[in-house]
Design goal:
This protein has 132 residues and is α/β, with parallel strands linked by helices. It has a single domain, classed as Immunoglobulin-like (Sandwich). It is built from one helix and eight strands, in the order H-E-E-E-E-E-E-E-E. The strands form two sheets. The protein has a four-stranded mixed beta sheet, with no helix packed on it. It has a four-stranded mixed beta sheet with strand order 3-8-7-5, with no helix packed on it. The longest helix is centred in the N-terminal third of the chain and has 24 residues. The radius of gyration is 20 Å and the shape is globular. The N and C termini lie far apart (62 Å). It binds copper (II) ion. Copper (II) ion binds next to loops.
Length: 132
């Protein structure tokens, strides 16, 4: 019985440590929010766009604005504001999931350069993001 209890503790202690580390990693530093570097995030209806964050709106079968400049490391938000389904392709890759009306997709641009933003479903939709 005593042996069993110490075994349970051996399992529980690392679990608690992992939970504490996860909680710390989820701190509310704005630089650490959003997806990690270069990863494709998810389109989430409940997600909100932080105040003053760079935002590209998907409306009237257009990305608005058609040009956007951000600093390296910034997260850019894309919001679908209409009933047409859109997605976000970054230089032809790094595709977002399909986005329904009201859904938001975010992507962290960590590397300076010029990125072409397109929608797989509407070839007329394009924008350019310059990362400084
Ligand atoms: Cu589209």
């Amino acid at each position: 019985m005593r042996l069993l209890r110490s075994r349970i503790l051996l399992v529980l202690i690392p679990l608690c440590l992992a939970a504490a580390l996860l909680a710390a990693a989820c701190g509310s530093d704005s630089k650490s929010s959003g997806p990690p570097a270069g990863s494709v995030g998810t389109a989430v209806a409940q997600q909100s766009v932080p105040a003053n964050a760079p935002l590209i709106d998907e409306d009237n079968l257009q990305f608005k604005p058609g040009k956007l400049t951000v600093d390296a490391g910034q997260v850019v938000y894309f919001k679908n504001s209409e009933t047409a389904i859109h997605n976000v392709e970054i230089d032809g890759g790094n595709k977002s999931p399909d986005m329904k009306k009201g859904e938001i997709f975010s992507y962290r641009f960590n590397t300076a350069g010029t990125y072409k933003i397109t929608c797989e479903y509407h070839p007329q939709m394009h924008s350019t993001i310059t990362v400084k």
